[in-house]
Amino acid sequence: MDEGQVEQVRRFNRTVAERVGVLHDHYLGGARPYGQARLLWQIGDGGTHDVRGVRDRLGLDSGYVSRLLRALERDGLVAVEPHPRDRRVRTVRLTEAGRQERALLDDRSDALAASLLAPLNARQRERLTSAMAEVGRLLTASTVSLAVLDPDHPDAAHCLRSYAAELGELFDGGFDPANSLLPDPGELRAPHGLFLVARLHGEPVGCAGLKLPSGAPAEIKRLWVCPRARGLGLARRLLAELEERAARHGCDLVRLDTNRALEAATRLYRDSGYTEVPAFNDEPYAHHWFEKRLTPTAR
Amino acid sequence: MDEGQVEQVRRFNRTVAERVGVLHDHYLGGARPYGQARLLWQIGDGGTHDVRGVRDRLGLDSGYVSRLLRALERDGLVAVEPHPRDRRVRTVRLTEAGRQERALLDDRSDALAASLLAPLNARQRERLTSAMAEVGRLLTASTVSLAVLDPDHPDAAHCLRSYAAELGELFDGGFDPANSLLPDPGELRAPHGLFLVARLHGEPVGCAGLKLPSGAPAEIKRLWVCPRARGLGLARRLLAELEERAARHGCDLVRLDTNRALEAATRLYRDSGYTEVPAFNDEPYAHHWFEKRLTPTAR
DNA sequence: TCCATCCTCTGACCTTAGTCAGAGGATCTC
DNA sequence: GAGATCCTCTGACTAAGGTCAGAGGATGGA
């Protein structure tokens, strides 16, 4: 990592923490303490939520949230009720007054944004917002974490289901995992392979599997990125991670197959140094087969 | 102001407050409470500082700072001593242990920056840091405030001195305000004119004067931007502000003169719609004369 | 039916980050 | 030399954010 880049990021953190961070907290809070405002925001407008879910998303102590909720309730902003089917769980929703209060936070947030733009001319605003979009996108990308999970883990299963559902829509004649090679994703667990899941704020947003047959080339399967997490370079990152793990495992060749409907994927493979080769398996859904030679890594 | 832009800024604030802001505070703080860490940072390494100056820069209450200093002193990180010449004032400097602690904050800050860059590939890092630089520059630009000051105000006088000093270096044969037209900047006060000072974090970083002779075109004088505040579009902003004020005052023509050594300024005037005209005064330091027709504003 | 578990709430407690009103010493101005 | 002014410090106080250890009701499984 380049030292100048680290210094640049630090400078950015200082500027932004000062200009945005401070304002963000002490503007947005306004009359309401920041904790309450945060909670109000998180409860949002869309109907009823489990208290537990909200709490987990904010990462707060249960006692603390309980107290915050009581304060909001006292001001008539939220209604807390037991869950209809499990009366241990409590649910919370905004009242009309709560929705108004939240809209007020919205306005404050707009005012803050506007106060940043106001002193700038049109061209500067244009440049600022597009640079902000870029920073936001890349910071989001850097927030995504990769983890090796068992293919039966709920997050992994969610990705595999989404993968199959999406292919079902894209392929002529649909997609049925049972007809494809690797009908059982259980093969993608140690020692015969591994399964990687990408998560953003705890939500699974992508996956990729690697088969590591002994004495044969490694094979990449089930590479998928959730539609709303596209444009973050995530597929490329998953691919690079699998290649590195394959290389560390001693593989010097990695292969994969893909369907002609998956144009972006095919482009990614070509860009990443894969070359098209004759069919090396009889996957019924595949139209293209690729391979890439790996440079062995230390260890 | 474009609604999409406001929304973009808000989205940015959310992402950044989450990813940078939170980490910033709770990483950087570490063992030391954030207030102490901030103070430690501000005292910095460069020798001895007046407590008052440090306090003003952080915008904190004197009692609060006193307490923070005592805590730092207890931990042996700073030494507080009376000012040698005015024993009401106290000065503060880091001890060796304080310098080490501050270096530790530095490392934490680096670690935070590195943790943002780590998950990205080389191209993404490149793009992130340059977008951050752009955002930082433009947010800094939007932090600059303009104020009408009396030319005798210390901040205004500082700008005028710097202006003269810089011209003195740039012009063949130096620059002596007494030889120029408008030897007395006092003419740049109401009702005969006005003087605008740009400030960044309270420090004066630029200025521009406007003469408003009754029945004659307005005239722009003493436009200057401090070297370390260049590249923020500040000269352009000062110019636009003066033009707007002139137009509101009823002027439909604004004029100015400039020296050939000031190439960037000359370029700015041309870009901003000024056209070169024959000399309209006998300013000894001028080589170019410009004018611009204003479109009258409402009111 | 009973016990373990889950979820929420309450009370007690702690640290930070401030604010405010003087007290008290040092300096400046007349 | 006497105020007025300046600067720092102290004590008293407040609010927010948060943690921890149970209490107590609801549910699920043996």
From TrEMBL, chains A, B:
<protein>
    <submittedName>
        <fullName>DNA-binding transcriptional regulator, MarR family</fullName>
    </submittedName>
</protein>
<dbReference type="GO" id="GO:0003677">
    <property type="term" value="F:DNA binding"/>
</dbReference>
<feature type="domain" description="N-acetyltransferase">
    <location>
        <begin position="146"/>
        <end position="295"/>
    </location>
</feature>
<dbReference type="Pfam" id="PF00583">
    <property type="entry name" value="Acetyltransf_1"/>
</dbReference>
<dbReference type="InterPro" id="IPR016181">
    <property type="entry name" value="Acyl_CoA_acyltransferase"/>
</dbReference>
<feature type="domain" description="HTH marR-type">
    <location>
        <begin position="1"/>
        <end position="137"/>
    </location>
</feature>
<dbReference type="InterPro" id="IPR000182">
    <property type="entry name" value="GNAT_dom"/>
</dbReference>
<dbReference type="Pfam" id="PF12802">
    <property type="entry name" value="MarR_2"/>
</dbReference>
<dbReference type="GO" id="GO:0003700">
    <property type="term" value="F:DNA-binding transcription factor activity"/>
</dbReference>
<dbReference type="InterPro" id="IPR036388">
    <property type="entry name" value="WH-like_DNA-bd_sf"/>
</dbReference>
<keyword id="KW-0012">Acyltransferase</keyword>
<dbReference type="GO" id="GO:0016747">
    <property type="term" value="F:acyltransferase activity, transferring groups other than amino-acyl groups"/>
</dbReference>
<keyword id="KW-0808">Transferase</keyword>
<dbReference type="InterPro" id="IPR050832">
    <property type="entry name" value="Bact_Acetyltransf"/>
</dbReference>
<dbReference type="InterPro" id="IPR000835">
    <property type="entry name" value="HTH_MarR-typ"/>
</dbReference>
<keyword id="KW-0238">DNA-binding</keyword>
<dbReference type="InterPro" id="IPR036390">
    <property type="entry name" value="WH_DNA-bd_sf"/>
</dbReference>
